[in-house]
Every structure is written in structure tokens, then in C-alpha cells.
Design brief:
Elements (H helix, E strand, L loop, with lengths): L5 H25 L7 H30 L11 H32 L1 H6 L14 H31 L15
Helix pairs in contact: 1-2, 2-3, 3-5
Amino acid sequence: MKRYHPLLVTLHWVLAAMIVGGLIMGGQVLAALPNDSPDKLFSLRMHMSVGMIIGVLMIIRLITRLRTQHPPKADTGNALLNMGGQAAHWALYAFVLLMVASGIGISLGAGLPDIVFGGSGAPLPETFNDLPPRAAHGILSKLLALTILAHIAGWAYHQFLLKDGLFSRMWFGKRTD
């Protein structure tokens, strides 16, 4: 076994794009828009929709990961780096799922389902900052971004220093030799 299951590969790359997009949308676009801006409702609808899709796809990815055969664990030649790599991968799952959960918490606490998707016509709350899940969402977004950067650094280490072809494991092609 030298490659991951094609569904796992597909979900990896689709989720990578969606997660980075969600982080940018939340941290750059939504954060800059005041809640009374007419554009805020559309942006929230997009952000919340993408967040829910990410949650569903992450659960599918986790189930696929646990139920399919996969290549042996990557070896850097250093036990501490190997352990860190494994921890970072599981942290990605945890941080993404916790981001989704905290987003749902913000949404429910602020009554957003009726406002954003139900067309209630009610105004958005003046701020979301008084909701406890909002603080968690902000902290988790930073932790997730740092873990993504560590993931990319790990790829670069394998690709350019170890030159072990690790990238091919998370790409399409024959799964066995």
C-alpha cells in the first residue's frame, strides 16, 4: 500500500481548499463587516453553509480514514518528529470539528438559523462577542491556522529535505506496487 484511498485523497484536497477559504472568510471578510452592514447576511450565509459542509465532509473523511487501508506511517528518522506529525494530523481533525461545533454554538446562541436561512427579517445581534462559543471560535481559528502551517512545514521537510516522495501518498494513482 503506497497511497491513500481515492475518497480520502479527494476529501483531503477539497477540505483543504474549503477550510482555508473558511478561515479567510471568517477572519478577513466577516470580521471586517459590521453586523448592521447589508453584506453581512450574505457573507454569514456563505460562511455558515461552508462550515456545515466542512463538518459533514470531515466526518466522512474520518470514517473513511478509520475504515480504509492506508500506507505505513511516515518515518522521518526521528521519533519526536514522527510523534509530532501524528499529533498534528489528529489535531487537524479535532480543531476543524471543534470549529464547526463552536460555529454552531454561535449560530444557535445568536438565533442565526432563523435570521440567516429562515428569512425572519430580524436584525443580526449588535455583536457576537458576548457569546462564549465566539471566543472559542476565534482561539480555535488561530490554532487551526498554526496546525495547517505545521502540516505544510512537514510536507516541505519531507519533500525538500528528506526527498522521500511523501506527497505522492496523498495523490491519485495506483494504491499498491
